[in-house]
Recover the amino acids of this structure.
């Protein structure tokens, strides 16, 4: 599966939030193509590192005259350490001889082929008093649910990392309408069961295809017992079914998470890893 959809990761307002404004870019021609360089400084040394909650960067643009590997070769040597995750959409994997990581993507042009276990779980959820609600303001709430559910597995993420991400979501929503949340609640008790943040709903530029990124999500303890994330993902898929949209699961290399994503019938569309220096 190959999509030419634009990705929200490289929008300047999102990078500004995730990098505290500390990033640069390689530019080809009159902005025919760009290659963002997210920067950090430690002990007075500036280096390039992939921001959290920003799965893929790399080359973005419309030019057919330059390749991702050309941008890689142009990264200044003064950066002694480079760690980047590169999208495969600019010129495809044929020209990139780099290690790759698993990433599951589902085309929503036609109804997906869910596995039996997924269909069974969804059937059960439909018998319960659950209401799904779209919102554009509750990013803090979703991040809190995510941290309660998975924070112990992501100890490398700091409070500041989460704050940057929330700021990035607000920027995407305010400027592009490209961020929203989806919550699941028990309609009888008002109890929150689970929540998710999706990025990339908006029409960015004049692209004929869109990506919907499943970036940050988690169940509450009651929702976990119900398998509520099946319902949240299915609800997001059903809302955009039949359109030129790709549902991007954002991974995963974790076997149990990959097995869960595979229940929805996606295709593995890897992205690439580039490392240089210490």
């Amino acid at each position: 599966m190959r999509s030419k959809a634009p990705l929200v990761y490289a929008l300047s307002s999102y990078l500004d939030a995730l990098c505290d404004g500390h990033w640069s870019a390689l530019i080809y021609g009159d902005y025919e193509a760009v290659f963002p360089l997210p920067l950090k400084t430690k002990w007075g040394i500036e280096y390039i590192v992939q921001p959290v909650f920003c799965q893929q960067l790399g080359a973005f643009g419309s030019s057919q005259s330059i390749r991702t590997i050309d941008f890689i070769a142009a990264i200044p040597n003064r950066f002694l350490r480079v760690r980047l995750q590169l999208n495969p959409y600019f010129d495809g994997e044929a020209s990139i001889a780099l290690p790759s990581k698993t990433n599951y993507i589902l085309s929503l042009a036609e109804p997906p082929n869910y596995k039996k276990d997924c269909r069974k779980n969804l059937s059960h959820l439909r018998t319960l008093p659950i209401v799904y609600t779209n919102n554009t303001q509750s990013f803090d709430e979703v991040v809190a649910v995510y941290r309660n559910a998975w924070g112990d597995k992501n100890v490398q993420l700091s409070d500041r990392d989460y704050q940057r991400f929330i700021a990035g979501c607000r920027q995407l929503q305010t400027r592009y309408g490209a961020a929203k949340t989806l919550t699941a609640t028990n309609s009888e008790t008002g109890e929150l069961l689970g929540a998710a943040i999706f990025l990339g709903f908006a029409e960015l530029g004049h692209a004929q295809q869109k990506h919907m990124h499943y970036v940050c999500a988690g169940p509450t303890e009651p929702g976990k017992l119900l398998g509520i994330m099946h319902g949240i993902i299915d609800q997001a898929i059903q809302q955009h079914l039949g359109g030129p949209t790709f549902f991007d699961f954002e991974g995963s290399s974790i076997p149990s998470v990959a097995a869960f994503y595979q229940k929805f019938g996606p295709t593995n569309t890897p992205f690439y890893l580039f490392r240089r220096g210490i």
